[in-house]
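Good day; I would like, with your permission, to put a structural problem before you. I would ask you to consider whether the tokens describe a fold that such a sequence might reasonably adopt. The full record is reproduced below for your convenience:
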Amino acid sequence: MTIDDKTRTELEAAVFRRLVEHLRARTDVQNIELMNLAGFCRNCLSNWLKEAADATGAPMTKDESREAVYGMSYEDWKEKYQKPATAEQLETMKKVHPGH
């Protein structure tokens, strides 16, 4: 299957939006769990979005990129949904991502 660049970009954008919607709905899944299992989390997505904006010269702050991913301010999301990391999660993080 061959698709043109415009269609590929539109499909990739649709997939990104669906991933963000899915992560917004799954507030029970903690960022540390995502990092430990998948190697990325909501913060990574927001950082990648900010980097892409910076690369194209589009104005976007770190807070704006986080709000685009979280659907609210990062501080509000942490207050509502973030739970303290367990000792096991922190130990896994050290093994999987040394230096974090």
